[in-house]
Amino acid sequence: MFISVRVSYLYCFLATCCYLCSMLANKNQERTSLAKLGEFGLINHLTEHFKIYSSSTQKGIGDDAAVISSSDKELLITTDLLIEGVHFDLSYMPLKHLGYKAVMVNLSDVYAMNGAAEQITVSIAVSNRFPLEALEELYAGIQLACDTYKVDLIGGDTTSSTKGMLISVTAIGKAKKEDVVYRNGAKATDLIVVSGDLGAAYLGLQVLEREKQVFQVDPKNQPDLDAYTYLIERQLKPEARKDVTELLKELEVKPTSMIDISDGLSSEIMHICSQSKLGCKIYEEKLPLDPQVIATSEEFNMDSTMIALSGGEDYELLFTVPIADFDKIKANPHLSIIGHMVEENQGMNLVTRANQEMELKAQGWNSFEE
Ligand code: ADP
Ligand code: MG
Question: Ligand 1 pocket test: which of 37, 42, 43, 172 has the largest number of ligand atoms within 8 Å of its C-beta?
């Protein structure tokens, strides 16, 4: 199943600005105070329409702990914490998209282990600036993600914050012991493969930041975002590549190592290299770029190769396969062979279009950098 949802984000952007401004400023929107429902009423209200998909979910929301039946498979558990002002900006991130994305970033980690995601928990902290309607939007996005990817919301926690919103999602998945793919299994001569294309989410963020500045100066100025729809979609509505793990099974390819691209290709391939004790060669001309990435990089005076290497938030899968699998991968439109592993002493390099080797640098996202 290849998931391709192309929505018009032009409308979305405008609607977002208007929706949030009015919601937070109490204009034209229903605004129900969270205090009115109480904690249990709120949890029940937000979660009552979620379905259960997985037979391993014995008990979801409503007891002291959720109950998942265990099996002979390995359990995969991963968590991400998102903080308003650090990881997302509600002036252009619709809450529904935020809910969806918060689930995606976690499912992506389960798929990067070659597992199947089955359950999530969602914990939120919100200040009294948020009415019930805002949380309904957030949970609509979470529910869409659960329904699309067939995962069960089985619990979480709800609390207040003095300022802003925090959202933490934990995903739980499973894989047969022999199917789990770690970062440390690559072999020298393995091919390096990436799904989809790179750099679009980063440029989407640049476009949204620019339009936010324009909007702040002149709210009547309606942005023309036609040229950037794919970029904005990749930033606001990323999809975790469940389809790629399924495709690899169909092709009978088991990666020797795998990681998802949250921080940018450079820093992710460096994780595979260091954990597998190898080096790599990545070929600039092989990097998959959408035409909008090429055009918009030029417009922003940025180098599209740098963006593909360091952009981040692509949520594509980066993996290595034995060279013997070349024929199974080479013609697939969803997969690009971008290089190969080498011995550790050869280092980690980018081979440019001019056939020069440049050392790869991790310029990925680092939360502790100034
Ligand atoms: P406890 O007091 O045992 O921590 P809570 O009152 O926090 O229980 O939660 C009651 C039930 O609702 C539990 O099953 C919990 O997992 C679930 N829950 C709490 N907050 C959320 C949330 N934000 N999203 C989904 N489920 C939640
Ligand atoms: Mg609790």
Answer: 43
Say whether pTM exceeds 0.70. yes
Which residue CA neighbors atom 17 of ligand 1 most closely? 155
pLDDT in tens, 103-127: 999 999 999 999 999 999 999 999 9
Ligand 1, residues 157, 165, 169: which to mutate, most atoms within 8 A of Cβ? 157
How does pLDDT run across 209-266, given as a tens digit for each residue?
999 888 888 888 777 889 999 999 999 999 999 999 999 999 999 999 999 999 999 9
pLDDT digits (tens, 9 = 90+) for 251-298: 999 999 999 999 999 999 999 999 999 999 999 999 999 999 999 999
3-state secondary structure the chain: CCCCCCCCHHHHHHHHHHHHHHHHCCCCCCCCCHHHHHHHHHHHHHHCCCCCCCCCEEECECECCCEECCCCCEEEEEEEEEEECCCECCCCCCHHHHHHHHHHHHHHHHHHCCCEEEEEEEEEEECCCCCHHHHHHHHHHHHHHHHHHCCEEEEEEEEECCCCEEEEEEEEEEECHHHCCCCCCCCCCCEEEEECCCCHHHHHHHHHHHHHHHHHHCCCCCCCCHHHHHHHHHHHCCCCCHHHHHHHHHCCCCCCEEEECCCCHHHHHHHHHHHHCEEEEEEHHHCCCCHHHHHHHHHCCCCHHHHHHHCCCCCCEEEEECHHHHHHHHCCCCEEEEEEEEEHHHCEEEECCCCCEEECCCCCCCCCCC
pLDDT at residue 94 in the model:
95
61 lines ligand 1 (CB under 6 A): yes
Does the beta carbon of 59 lie inside 6 Å of ligand 1? Answer: no
